[in-house]
Design goal:
Keywords: ATP-binding, Cytoplasm, Kinase, NAD, NADP, Nucleotide-binding, Transferase. This protein is an alpha+beta fold. The protein contains five helices and 17 strands. It has two domains: 113 residues, Probable inorganic polyphosphate/atp-NAD kinase, domain 1 (Rossmann fold, 3-Layer(aba) Sandwich), CATH 3.40.50.10330; 133 residues, Tumour Suppressor Smad4 (Sandwich), CATH 2.60.200.30. The chain has a six-stranded antiparallel beta sheet, with no helix packed on it. A six-stranded antiparallel beta sheet has the order 12-11-10-7-14-15, with no helix packed on it. The radius of gyration is 20 Å and the shape is elongated.
Length: 264
């Protein structure tokens, strides 16, 4: 990124307001292909930010998000009533604080013998596919830790994703930089009082589906779903990172701290 004018690539969700802002910003600042840009600017909500990371994360470019969706935990606020010139986008990018995220790697094996791999920047979740509860065995680094979990599902969340589905399932919010991940059950029936675990980020987690034919289970890495799984292995990626840029007054660490003190 140059000291004065970084090359920007503008990416927008299909929503009309996002597409309109993308055109205005591109006309004002110029627009580059993601591979040639210094910074990617994502316009939308958290769902679109995750799409951007999955599609363009291999370029290794930092991403500055502007919220135009309903959920924008990973985005910066678009200032109400501001024109494109008033947004001060380049100045905000130069002043932004980086948050380096490391995704989870999921490898899922299906009952048909297929093997599917995917990355997850928020979480990997396993969910029952029918009215029957899932029966799962949990192994950590090759050692069985829970012989049988009967539940609607279970998930593994990164620190950045710990405020999303994980938090809704009563999992812990994890501070950035602590190198831990959350293992959280969803509507656990047995053991009824098991509330999950906080694990070192380099832990390899293996879920084995104990009755995949009568009680089928799907696995989803962010939005990539694999159905009829019999085994799912998850570990933090060793060679992939992405960098998100945040306005200093609303950096990701502050947002995660503030989320823990919201009442009502």
């Amino acid at each position: 990124m140059t000291a004065t004018s970084p090359r920007l690539a503008f990416l927008a969700s299909p929503a009309e307001d996002a597409q309109r802002l993308r055109k205005e910003l591109a006309d004002h600042y110029g627009d580059h292909a993601p591979a040639d840009a210094d910074v990617l600017v994502a316009l939308g909500g958290d769902g679109f930010m995750l799409q951007t990371l999955h599609r363009h994360g291999t370029h290794g470019k930092p991403v500055f998000g502007l919220k135009l969706g309903t959920v924008g935990f990973l985005m910066n606020h678009q200032r109400d009533g501001a024109t494109v010139a008033d947004l001060g986008l380049v100045e905000r990018i130069h002043a932004a604080e980086p948050a380096v995220l490391r995704p989870l790697e999921m490898v899922a094996h299906t009952e048909s013998g297929a093997t599917m791999g995917s990355l997850a920047y928020n979480e990997v979740s396993l969910l029952r596919q029918t009215r029957q509860a899932a029966h799962l065995r949990i192994e950590l680094n090759g050692q069985t830790r829970l012989d049988e979990l009967i539940c609607d599902g279970v998930l593994v969340a990164t620190a950045a994703g710990s405020t999303a589905y994980n938090f809704s399932a009563h999992g812990p919010i994890l501070p950035l930089g602590t190198n831990v991940i959350a293992l959280t059950p969803i509507a656990a029936f047995r053991p009824r009082r098991w509330r999950g675990a906080v694990l070192r980020a380099d832990t390899e987690i293996c879920f084995r589906v104990l009755d995949p034919y009568k009680r089928p289970v799907s696995a989803t890495a962010d939005s990539h779903e694999v159905r009829d799984v019999v085994e799912v292995r998850i570990r933090e990626s060793q060679d992939r990172t992405v960098t998100l840029l945040f306005d200093p007054e609303h950096n990701l660490e502050e947002r995660m701290l503030a989320e823990q003190f919201i009442s009502g």
